[in-house]
Amino acid sequence: MIEVVYAGQEPPDEWDASIFLAGPTPRSATVPSWRPGALAELCRQSNVGVLVVFVPEAAGGTAYPDYDDQVAWEERWLDAADTILFWVPRDMATLPGLTTNVEFGRYESSGRVVLGAPEDAQHVRYLQHHARKHGAPVLPTLSDTVAAALASIEAGARRSGGERFVPLVAWRSPTFRTWVAAQQNAGNILLDGRLAWIQGQFIWAYHARMYVTAEDRVKANEFVLGRPDVVSIVAYRPGETPWRNEVVLVKEFRLPAGTSDGYVHELPGGGVLDGSPIDQAVHEMAEETGLRVAPERLRLSQVRQVVATLCAHRLHVFTVELTAEEIAYAHENPGPYGVHEDSERTFVEVRTYREILADELVDWSTLGVLNVVFSAPGP
């Protein structure tokens, strides 16, 4: 079922997917709009349960909203739409679409754009270049452009209320869903928001407006950052006291580092992109240190957020007690390790817990993990 929402109108309270029909709008009654043809193609091709289509034109026989209201309406639903279908049949004499250039520039890297233009469209090569640069489909016919837009949303996902303001490209991220579920379980209500940026489904930033039920107020001045959950492995050889535990760290050049040597010094680990956290922990341990440990040797310590004031993802901490041979191997084989073609180059460092506390090279999150692991009571 397709629900068409014209300029100034409010959409239904829930839907499975949404498409915004962006592109030149006729300014003269003698120039026909391309959007009825797009709606006809959507009706013919769509099999989405409830598909909302935003049309930034006045409904038949009605007046446009006030200019500022029109702009606000367009920006609100451009931000929310799962896919932005740009059809640009540009004719500089009759349908110049200059505003379209600005809108396309705002969303070209959003991961939500489909661009179509007929072969005789004027001055669209620059748009097409940047669409291809960002991996957006570029099509020559309206029918193909509609098909690409529908392919991008697939079956969609049912969302209601404030969830409608989360485009599918973010909604499909497990970290995003986990964050929303946690807020809902706490009794809070997502009122609306705006996806600021996203890189694939790997890392995203969302500006949310949330009703905080326990305080009966709206919180609307913060961004939430998210990425896939992360594993860290505390691989150590016990000493006479926890202070003398020998810990395997990895040293790696990372751009955010603010240490005296320009490197981060942290526990082996990485993002959980596929599979289970324990499988990822085994993989990261081998990839970053050369040490291969069987999954059954790993013990899950805790799962917590790392920086709860900013980031939504969680850290899964595993521990493994190394043999004398393994800690000797770590001492004698500093690397480099990592996936060099992905610009990952790691070096192994073996430090005692006391040395780690003293040298100020590791960050607070790493110190917090080690403190929990080494101060926790035994079984």
Automatic annotation (TrEMBL):
Cofactor(s) required, per the database record: Mg(2+)
Superkingdom as given in the UniProt entry: Bacteria
Keywords: Hydrolase, Transferase
Biological process (GO), any one: ribose phosphate metabolic process
Keyword Hydrolase: yes
Gene3D superfamilies, per database record: 3.40.50.450, Nucleoside Triphosphate Pyrophosphohydrolase (3.90.79.10)
A Pfam family of this chain: Nuc_deoxyri_tr2
Keyword Transmembrane in annotation: no
Domain Nudix hydrolase: 226-371
InterPro entries: Nuc_deoxyri_tr2, NUDIX_hydrolase-like_dom_sf, NUDIX_hydrolase_dom
GO molecular function annotations of the record: hydrolase activity; transferase activity
Name listed for the protein in its UniProt record: Nucleoside 2-deoxyribosyltransferase-like protein
Lineage: Bacteria, Bacillati, Actinomycetota, Actinomycetes, Pseudonocardiales
